[in-house]
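Researcher: Please translate sequence to structure tokens.
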Amino acid sequence: MLTLAMLIDAFAVGSHARAQDAADAIEIAVAMPLTGPRAQEGREIANAVEMYARQVNGAGGLKGRQVRIMPYDDEAKPEVAATRAREIAASRAVGVIGHITSAAALAAGTTYDAAGIPVITANAGADEITEGKPGSFRLTFDITSQSRALTLYA
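Model: Translation complete:
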């Protein structure tokens, strides 16, 4: 939860924060598979983010502003993720938590990068997700790091 707290704070007041009226809620997009074969995993993450946002809001919000979570169903499909990324870029979201597959994260990442919207993924491991993208972050090891670690046990 500490990571989520720091992330929400960074999205809301960091250098990448998009223009919002000070009285408005801080909108954070959560792009996960909410339907389809990976829906359970996506809903668990989305529910955890929503629960934390309720906790933050119950304590007075973030710097006096409420946090609003905006769910987007990417179905864990690259073509849907790309469409959702365009929708998010057109929204008031100041950041994105999401895309649990590398294919979806890669399909959406270019749009977020071009729009200056920071994004963090918990699961996607493809090296290209964060390479050369200062606004892209991950909570898991990239594929190269995972491969190097596995060679130690071979």
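Researcher: Any highlights?
Model: The longest strand covers residues 26-32.
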